[in-house]
Amino acid sequence: MSGEGGLSLQQALAALLEVAVRAGVEENRARTEALSLAAALAESAPGAPTDWAKAFPGATTQDFFDAAVRGRRWRGAPTAVLTELVTAGSPEKIPYAEALAELASASCTLGEPTMRVVGNASVAAAAQLQAAGARPLQVASTPTPAAAVAVEPKPEEPAKTVDELLAELDELTGLERVKREVHRQVAVLRVEKLRTEAGLKSPTITRHLVFVGNPGTGKTTVARLVSGIYKALGLLSKGQLVEVDRSELVAGYLGQTATKTAEVVASAAGGVLFIDEAYSLTAGDLGADQYGREAVDTLVKEMEDRRDDLVVIVAGYPEPMAVFIAANPGLASRFRTTIAFDDYSDDELTDILTGLCEGADYELVPEALERFRHILTETPRGQSFGNGRFARNTLEAAIGRHAWRLRDVTAPTTDQLRQILAEDLSDEVSDNEQGEEA
Predict the structure, then answer these.
(1) DSSP-derived secondary structure letter, 344
(2) What share of the chain is helix, strand, coil (3-state, %, to 5)?
(3) What strands lie across the sheet with 311-316, from one edge to the other?
(4) What was the pLDDT predicted at 150?
(5) What do you get for the CA distance between the two ends of the chain, in Å?
(6) Among 61-65, 101-105, 216-220, 348-352, which is the least confidently predicted range?
(7) Model pTM score
(8) Is 403 exposed, middle or buried (0-12, 13-18, 19+ CB in 10 A)?
């Protein structure tokens, strides 16, 4: 990411599209995804919708906020296009990640940048660079534009084995029940494959999964690992993860929804289609949700047509997901395995925050860790609590306050640039900074 004098959003977008074309990515898809990420990062900046629209001619303020909703998933994780490039071992994965990091930096020029935007951009840039194997090395201290990040490319790595991917799963914080169930699924599927290769009869075992749990409990992260594991087992041809929600499956008119859903499923062929808050497709009265029901009917048909090279994972809160699965006989017959994601403990959330800091090349001093533990004890826990997302949001806010704290330091030391102090986790910030939705 650039420091002062960096690229504008339009310039960063143009540079990213050049890489996208070289990588064989559809230009319009890369543009839409990039602008969604930019909107998600700059969401809290006054005046950002107007500046954002300059890179998206004809866009409205509502388009900005709709894009921000779609892009929030990439504030702490690689974008869908980058994930596909990494999965395919594309030589353009690092250039694309670097272009996304520049775009994150440029997002800080939209409107009147807030401390929260700086934190959002720093964490998002680190997530893209890490996913592609480029490590963030340095973070600057001024909020305009975002943190300067140098990258160190790594040589191409061979495709990961099942054991390597399971080791990554085991290294995740918490999720002990999830880890046991995924290991069990892998064992069953591995033996089924070996029996088939040996000419033995095997029962047809559905590979589709239901993930239930509160927000921020690692469902998307595990889904990404599952897609890689299934590919390594030879059960999927590509192993990419395509993450969607209701808005990306349902169209404005009956008849269009079937086409839209089929196109999304086609993009996930060879990999995993991950549908978050899947119950939103069938919730409500029949008349109000006939579009969602059309999407479900299409999904069931596509799952059958592509049963040999597609896995679907649906996710959401436990009770609504049970109702969702029961709403259609085709769903009930295809989703027979449910994996429950427990909330994180305070110790696990502290570990998550520490890991996020290290990934973005920051360091939490001991007093800051204690401050975070104190914040956790005072934070109510319920369905609205963000779990890992809460830790990420805490870091994003802390990075913004850190930048503001160093605003008058002409030549900060490396320790000053890296260290998050207890005061950076203070709640004493403006209401509009605190109120940004996760």
Answers:
(1) P
(2) 55, 5, 35
(3) 241-244, 272-276, 311-316, 209-213, 337-341
(4) 41
(5) 23
(6) 61-65
(7) 0.76
(8) buried
